[in-house]
């Protein structure tokens, strides 16, 4: 009887030990799943997610104030190098201040929607040498320390579309490749606006209340390939307005009020040119013939929805089927007839 009791106690002890071991292993596994993220309770309501390569993403969309955001990043954070910070549709934060993000560094910062109005100097200071992508869109942002951009040595992409920014911001960056400022009240671009952005590949200024382009605005940018100026109120392009040096490029001038394009206004274009939805009465030979007469480097022209007169001024295009092939859509004359369907013989008496 005594021997049986001993066996029972030994069995119970073994079960207890195994249970404790299992619980310990379970806790250890849980901790490994959370690492390298901080303790969940310490950073709430922010949420940290571990990526497959053990990078960390921080989502702080649910914070209720800038003070709470600062409290999160003043918590004990064992590993400060984050892949990204995301704040979406947050109506509580109106200002981001220096120190709100502590010493954390980020490669990507995305703030979309919400009531953000101001970003103070040095807010992203800890990310001077890590930040590659900065997006602040669809907010009430009216002030940002653009003079600080030069300090972000790895910055490649800036998307500040659809905010309350007025005027073209003064900035310099040796690394920036893509700058999107559409749907802001930019109003104009000075001759020096892009001078200090030598690595720029794409510029987005669509629906930015721009009414004119000065000669030389886009000159001297050896890597520039893509220009978005659609949905503005530009009425004419002077000689030297757009000059590119790349062998493949896109220029969007559609949905403006363009009535006149001077000879030499479009230089170095070798890709697609969009001039649809304007007020052009002609596709002037002096403007477009040099661009469709470049062999393999000729442009593809999109020119629908312009009130083209289709007199002798368009003969150069119609009588040469090689040139017609560069029309990518179906522009029509003011009477509705498609340019591609015009009989070349009607232009025999043109000078």
3D architecture notes:
- The protein has helices at residues 2-34, 40-43, 66-73, 285-292, 315-318, 321-324, and strands at 47-50, 56-59, 81-90, 95-96, 105-114, 118-119, 133-137, 157-159, 178-180, 202-204, 226-228, 236-237, 242-243, 250-252, 260-261, 266-267, 272-274, 300-302.
- By secondary structure, it is of the alpha/beta class.
- It has one domain (50-347): Ribonuclease Inhibitor (Leucine-rich repeat, LRR (right-handed beta-alpha superhelix), Alpha-Beta Horseshoe), CATH 3.80.10.
- The strands form 4 sheets. Strands 1-2-3-5-7-8-9-10-11-14-17-18 form a 12-stranded mixed beta sheet, with no helix packed on it.
- The relative contact order is 0.05.
Number of strands: 18
Overall average residue pLDDT: 92
Amount of helix:
10-25%
Which architecture per CATH?
Answer: Alpha-Beta Horseshoe
End-to-end separation in angstroms reads 125 Å
By CATH, the topology is Leucine-rich repeat, LRR (right-handed beta-alpha superhelix)
Strand order of the largest sheet: 1-2-3-5-7-8-9-10-11-14-17-18
Major sheet attributes: 12 strands, mixed
Q: What is the radius of gyration computed over CA atoms, rounded to a whole number of angstroms?
A: 30 Å
In the predicted model, the low-confidence regions spanning at least 5 consecutive residues are: 5-33
Class by alpha and beta content: alpha/beta
> What's the helix-strand series?
HHEEHEEEEEEEEEEEEEEEHEHH
Q: Please name the fourth-level CATH homologous superfamily.
A: Ribonuclease Inhibitor
């Amino acid at each position: 009887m005594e021997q049986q009791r001993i066996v029972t106690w030994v069995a119970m002890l073994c079960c207890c030990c195994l249970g404790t071991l299992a619980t310990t292993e379970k806790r250890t596994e849980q901790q490994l799943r959370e690492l390298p993220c901080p303790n969940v309770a310490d950073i709430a309501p922010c949420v940290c997610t571990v990526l497959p390569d053990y990078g960390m993403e921080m989502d702080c969309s649910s914070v209720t104030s800038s003070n709470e955001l600062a409290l999160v990043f003043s918590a004990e954070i064992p590993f400060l190098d984050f892949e990204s910070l995301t704040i979406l549709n947050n109506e509580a934060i109106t200002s981001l201040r220096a120190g709100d993000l502590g010493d954390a560094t980020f490669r990507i910062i995305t703030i979309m929607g919400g009531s953000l109005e101001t970003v103070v100097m040095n807010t992203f200071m800890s990310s001077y040498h890590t930040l590659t992508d900065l997006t602040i869109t669809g907010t009430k942002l009216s002030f940002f320390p653009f003079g600080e951009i030069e300090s972000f040595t790895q910055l490649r992409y800036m998307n500040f579309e659809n905010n309350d920014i007025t005027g073209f911001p003064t900035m310099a960056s040796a690394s920036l490749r893509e700058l999107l400022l559409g749907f802001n009240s930019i109003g104009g671009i000075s001759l020096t606006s892009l001078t200090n952005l030598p690595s720029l590949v794409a510029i987005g200024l669509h629906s930015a209340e721009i009414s004119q382009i000065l000669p030389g605005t886009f000159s001297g940018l050896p890597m520039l390939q893509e220009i978005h100026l659609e949905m503005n109120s530009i009425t004419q392009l002077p000689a030297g307005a757009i000059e590119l040096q790349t062998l493949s490029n896109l220029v969007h001038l559609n949905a403006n009020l363009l009535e006149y394009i001077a000879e030499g206004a479009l230089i170095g274009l070798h890709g697609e040119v969009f001039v649809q939805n304007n007020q052009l009465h002609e596709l002037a030979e002096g403007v477009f013939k040099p661009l469709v007469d470049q062999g393999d480097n000729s442009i593809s022209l999109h020119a629908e929805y312009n009130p083209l007169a289709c007199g002798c001024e368009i003969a150069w295009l119609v009588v040469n089927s090689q040139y017609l092939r560069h029309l990518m859509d179906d522009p029509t004359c003011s009477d509705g007839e498609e340019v591609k369907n015009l009989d070349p013989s009607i232009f025999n008496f043109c000078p």
